[in-house]
Write a structure and sequence with these properties.
12 helices; binds dihydroflavine-adenine dinucleotide; about 50% helix; alpha/beta; about 300 residues
Length: about 300
């Protein structure tokens, strides 16, 4: 049953018609619990609030699978505006971007040029930019684009998904790159990804421990307190300095745990999505945790 529900919401997240219609609806279905508004002003307000609580942020200007060059260029301009504002306001904040928003499906060189413009501006302000990992169909190309960008830019990192069998090998090739480890949010075939949650969790722990023992900064992206507790204990046993890693969670999830980790002295970073293109992101969050449906029901019946 859990798999059917998951597949249903992931199917909705990929539906082009619903994604484009949702932009016209404005926020609905309880999406505002997980998305910090539609404008740069609204997201900066959320960042300031979290920064005041000792929490760093990474911003995602929502959008993905763009098939039109003008739209991709507009997305790039919005991201550059965001960088200018982060610097102007001196916020503790970096960026998360998706290559399919910046034209990867249209023309790879065009996407790379867009990324270079973003990284040039970010470098000038000493801001880090993380490339989110999307579905497996874009996996190899995403790693190749990263390799290309890293020839000129050191302020770029990537995400590794523990549901992929090849995650360990790829992580070994990325020793010097700042990485976020996550479980993986897309529906992938058993040929490339563990179907079983226990294997995904065990692989997550193995990958994270391997990174914690290495030299490069790692973000641990999960809401799973079992994993977080085990990694806290591992860091303590192995005298791993707190400045070598951070925990990351998504905006609106487990706020109590987010604050607790920050209060305990761990580096903590909240991933904040914003913008009109909220539908696909929101459907993936429902796929991961059907309990989030409660918020949808409340929104439909009580507002
Ligand atoms: P999971 O959903 O596996 O839950 C494990 C356990 O944790 C649950 O059984 C429950 O006990 C507890 N739990 C989880 N959520 C809870 C809640 N809200 N309240 C109470 N208990 C809860 N994916 C991707 O493919 N590419 C990417 O680039 C990213 N980026 C990214 C950034 C960040 C900061 C995060 C946190 C996640 C991503 N993801 C992602 C999504 C990721 O791959 C994954 O789908 C989700 O994080 C869900 O997995 P979790 O590890 O959080 O817990």
């Amino acid at each position: 049953m859990a798999n059917i529900t998951r597949d249903f919401f992931i199917g909705l997240s990929n539906n082009h018609f619903l994604n484009s219609q949702a932009k016209k609806w404005g926020f609905s279905l309880g999406a505002d619990k997980f998305v910090a508004g539609t404008t740069v002003d609204s997201v900066l307000k959320a960042v300031k609030k979290l920064n005041a609580q000792g929490i760093s942020c990474t911003l995602d200007s929502l959008g993905e699978f763009v098939s039109d060059k003008t739209e991709a260029s507009q997305a790039k301009e919005k991201i550059i505006t965001l960088l200018n504002e982060i610097d102007r306001e001196k916020l503790d904040c970096h960026l998360s971007v998706k290559l399919t928003q910046l034209g990867l499906d249209i023309d790879r060189d065009f996407c790379i040029e867009n990324m270079k413009e973003i990284l040039r501006t970010a470098k000038q302000y000493d801001i880090f930019v993380n490339i989110d990992m999307e579905d497996y169909a874009h996996y190899d190309e995403t790693l190749e684009v990263l390799e290309d960008l890293r020839k000129d830019y050191g302020n770029v990192g990537i995400v590794i998904q523990s549901y992929l069998y090849r995650a360990e090998d790829d992580l070994a090739d990325l020793k010097d790159v700042r990485i976020r480890i996550v479980k993986g949010a897309y529906k992938e075939s058993e040929e490339v990804a563990y179907p079983d949650k226990t294997d995904i969790d065990l692989n997550f722990l193995a990958l994270a421990k391997q990174r914690l023992l290495g030299d490069t900064f790692t973000s641990i992206g999960t809401h799973d307190h079992h994993i977080i507790n085990e990694l806290k204990a591992f860091a303590k046993e192995n005298n791993i300095e707190h400045d070598k890693f951070e925990f990351q969670m998504l905006y609106g999830f487990r706020n109590d745990l987010q604050n607790k980790l920050a209060d305990e002295g761990y580096n903590f970073c909240t991933y904040i999505p914003f913008g009109d293109d909220w539908f696909g992101y929101f459907m993936r969050r429902l796929a991961e945790r059907p309990q989030n449906m409660n918020l949808v029901m409340k929104d439909m019946f009580y507002t």
